[in-house]
Amino acid sequence: MEDQAAPAPSGSDGTIRVVAAAILYGGALLLVRKRGTSAFMLPGGKAEPGEHATETLTRELAEELGCGLTHAGVALLGRFVAPAANEPGRTVHATVYRGMLDGVPRIGAEIAQMLWYDLDRVPSDGTGPDDTVSVPLAPLLTRHVLPALRRQAGRA
Questions:
Q1: What is the mean pLDDT of residues 111-133?
Q2: What InterPro entries does its record include (predicted)?
């Protein structure tokens, strides 16, 4: 994996800069929901001063899921900008890597819930009668990450 500098620190201008992992297993994407929030998102987070992107991912995945990424096959999925899911008026600038976990994920740190989201599922508007259909997703996922992963998998 190419180790790039992590994004610049989050700013007072409303930007939230993060590094995140798109982890796929059996056609499903690992999503997390942090405590006190409603939308599911990718695991990852903000860089500490001086951290490179891979260091941020390693630290965040260890804190949030108790495991790491296998470094073989980790690749940049893209750099995306979207409205923040849980902080109105703020914007997320995300560097997203695709990879596989080294270990079995378990809920840790600030994570309240974890789920495997089927890539073939159509995002719901939240009005469906079945909770398995009505999973609130962060705009970063619906606008950028899911379409990019589906294109790569030939499901677009």
A1: 69
A2: NUDIX_hydrolase-like_dom_sf (IPR015797), NUDIX_hydrolase_CS (IPR020084), NUDIX_hydrolase_dom (IPR000086)
Q: Is the pLDDT of residue 128 over 60?
A: no
CB crowding 100-113: b at 16 or more within 10 Å, else e? ebeeebeeeeebee
Q: Which helix (H) or strand (E) holds 31?
A: strand 28-34
Q: How far apart are CA 139 and CA 112, in angstroms?
A: 19
Look up residue 36 and give its amino acid.
Answer: G
Q: Report pLDDT for 127.
A: 44
Give domain limits for the chain. 15-120+135-154
What residues contact 28, with CB distance under 8 A and at least 6 apart?
A: 116, 117, 118, 119
- The CATH superfamily label for domain 15-120+135-154 reads Nucleoside Triphosphate Pyrophosphohydrolase (3.90.79.10)
Dig out the tokens for 39 from the structure. Answer: 């939308």
